[in-house]
Amino acid sequence: MNAVAPVAADDSPSRLDHLAEIARQLLQRCRARGASQAEVQCSEERGLSVDVRMGAVETVESTRDRGIAVTVYFGRRKGSASTADLRVDSLDATVDQACAIARHTQDDPAAGLADAALMAQPPAGGFPEFDAWHPWALEPDRAIDLALTCEAAGREHPRIANSDGASVGSSASLGVYANSHGFLGRERSTQHTIGCALIAGHGEAMQRDGWYTTALAADDLEAAVAVGRRAAERTAARLQPRSLATGQMPVLFAAEVARSLIGHLVGAVSGGALYRKASFLVDAAGTRLFPDWFAIDELPFLMRGFRSAAFDAEGVATRQAPLVRDGVLQRYVLGSYSARKLGLATTANAGGVHNLQVAANAGPLADLLRGMGRGLLVTELMGQGVNAVTGDYSRGAAGFMVEDGQLAYPVDGITVAGNLKAMFGAIEAVGSDVDPRSHIRTGSILVGAMTVAGAD
């Protein structure tokens, strides 16, 4: 844990009030120009980031960004414009530009706000924040000290020869969404990160790896020293890698890369891919994709969840709901536009999913290794070799060969290949070793058989 300095007086409520008032004024301007519907998004972000390398400071950056986005509808014609300038004449010009665009576009039967009846209704006291607001009074000198401490701890390892650097970052974001249904929602959240990347070995034998910690509250971060040491251990463990003979074997995706498999599922069942027929899971709702024990739940009300929210990007009330239950895909991931294109109802996922939890049916990583006997543990994936239309999967990988349930030696220069639909069906276990650094919460995932191609 890292010592957290006391925070100065919190001005976020007044800043949110200011953004909310801007949103109300912009909606009035849209109505005055004849728009039948309108929506406004106002955001503001402040942040600090520091990068060091080899004991020296490389960058210190303080940021303060804001954005205003206006969307208007004239019937089924849509126009959008944005600005970062809060002067009255700039806001007027932004509304005028959005209206001009709408008047020159064609009717789109799926265009328009989400249905008014679906808008989230705030309880007394306003929408809950799900413990997402934890500002860190991080001064540049303190951030530099943390980054230097992190890198120094990693460089103490005897097999570390060089460094790609360490970084510390902290940000605080405010957002307001309002529309002509009368909905106005406010959100605020923070996120903090410490990371380190190191190099072991020399010349062509060099290996690079790292580690990072990220959380909404600085108290939840791993200590800077622990991050540096773990980065060093991961990097040193990759020295003297081998390739493998091409063949079929079980592949265990470590938790930090396993979430990418769930990300491919989400992409394939998202509305945009479905209505464009650009997904290998078109018409898959209600069909079995996974073993009968497999389950994924969406948890939008998770305390300190990275994507917790009471409403989606269109103001629709979120709800806890299964995505996969008993191995069967229960639904798609839809906003109102894609839902209309498909003749379905929104699933309150405009803007994405809100915290996915993959149910475990096994113990920690060590148990999974013992259970697989011989196979490949993947700790890094490279490249973009995934065909969203067919589901064909082929990615560069690195990790460790597993023999007799134990890590035997590092491997790289290999490719793991298969088809996502077949891979989903071949999942044999999900570990309890959940990686908490993402809104997709999963442990390691064991796929019973994949093609592993190497140089040998």
Features:
single chain, 456 residues, alpha+beta, PmbA/TldD fold, 2 domains, six-stranded antiparallel beta sheet, five-stranded mixed β-barrel, 17 strands
Molecular structure report:
This protein has 456 residues and is of the alpha+beta class. It folds into two domains: 12-236, PmbA/TldD superfamily (PmbA/TldD fold, 2-Layer Sandwich), CATH 3.30.2290; 241-456, no CATH class. Helices cover 23% and strands 35% of the residues. It contains nine helices and 17 strands. The strands form three sheets. A six-stranded antiparallel β-sheet has the order 3-2-1-4-5-6. The two termini are 44 Å apart. The model has no long low-confidence stretch (mean pLDDT 96).
- Report, as a whole number of angstroms, the end-to-end distance: 44 Å
Largest sheet: 6 strands, antiparallel
In DSSP terms, counting alpha (H) and pi (I) runs of 4 or more, how many helices? 9
Sum up the overall morphology in one term: globular
Task: Give Rg in angstroms.
Answer: 24 Å
How much helical structure, as a percent, in the residues? 10-25%
Annotated CATH topology of the largest domain: PmbA/TldD fold
Low-confidence stretches at least 5 residues in length (pLDDT < 50)?
none
Q: Kindly report the spatial arrangement of strands forming the biggest sheet.
A: 3-2-1-4-5-6
CATH class of the largest domain: Alpha Beta
In CATH, the homologous superfamily of the largest domain goes by the name: PmbA/TldD superfamily
Question: Average pLDDT value?
Answer: 96
| Percentage beta strand | 25-35%
